[in-house]
Every structure is written in C-alpha cells, then in structure tokens.
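Memo subject: From amino acid sequence to discrete backbone structure tokens
Keywords: amino acid chain, backbone geometry, structure tokens, three-dimensional fold.
Body of memo: The sequence and its backbone structure tokens, given next.
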Amino acid sequence: MKIKTTIAAFVLAALTFAFTETASAQTKEKTVMVGGAPMYPSKNIIENAVNSRDHKTLIAAVKAAGLVETLQGKGPFTVFAPTDKAFAKLPKGTVEELVKPESKAMLTKILTYHVLAGNYSTKDVWDAVKAGKGKATMATIAGAPLTFWTKGDDLYVTDVKGTSAKVTIADVNQSNGVIHVIDTVLMP
C-alpha cells in the first residue's frame, strides 16, 4: 500500500512539474492579445483562434467547411481572419445560409480566399506594396487574388469585387503561420 501511495505521489508530482513547465514556457512566449485571449506562437492557428471571443463566427464557419484539420496542419499559412463584427456586416441571413451543409462548397471557397500559402508578415506585405509602387497582388489558396495597399500606417486588403478590409491586428504568429485580423469579410 505504501509503495502504491509513493508511486501515485511521484506520478502526481511529475505531472504537476510537466504542467508547470508548459505553462511557464507559454508565459515566456511573446503573445498578442486577440479577442481577449493570448495567442501563443507555439500553438497552431486553430488552437489559438478558438480562444478569441471575437472569432466565434469564423471558427463555426471553419468547422462547417471542414477546414479544421487543414488549418491545424503544417502550413505555413497566412490567414486574414474576419471578426464577428465583420461577419455581421454581411446581409442578414448570409452566415446562416453559408454554414448549411448544402452551402459547404461556397463557404469553403470564401474561407480559403482569406488564406495565402506561406508565412507573410506585415513587413513582407509592406515590402511587396512598396516594390509594386503602391499595390501588391497575391494569390490565395482559393485561386483568386487579393490586392494589398497602404494608407498612412494602415494596411488594407481588397477582394476581386472591390471590397476593402483593414488589418486591425497584425502579425499574430502561430506555429504553422501567421494571422492578421481584418474588419471585413472578403469575397472571391
């Protein structure tokens, strides 16, 4: 009985140490706050995004489109993540329609239009805009391009329909890429 108690105490101490070390390592990481939650560079896009209270609609859409596993993958990905307020700007009933199973193909196209293959910081995008004399175009994984431009200290992205979104939180580093929070949903 004493041996079992000693073993149990040892296992508990080891687990406590491991948890403390993990928590300690995460607190040492340079995090960015998004939606009231710290975004840890050691976690992947999904592991971080699910904690943002400003991205509940986006996470529900990613789940409905079946893209969770993809965005947990190796990447790297650059994600332009619309907030819940961005989704609320869409015509009434649009989100509800898009998350229906019969709309999965359209939802997937819209969501993948917010993703670039590769890891692009805002510095990378700014450099591309400068090199492009005020604009830069990059292909999304959906195939359609996004156009980037700047105004003052702000970075904007414009979809093929001419709708622009402002990057409101930039360079949220992830283990498999980077997230840039935007204030408008982009449409392919």
Remarks:
- Confidence is low (pLDDT under 50) at residues 11-16, 18-26.
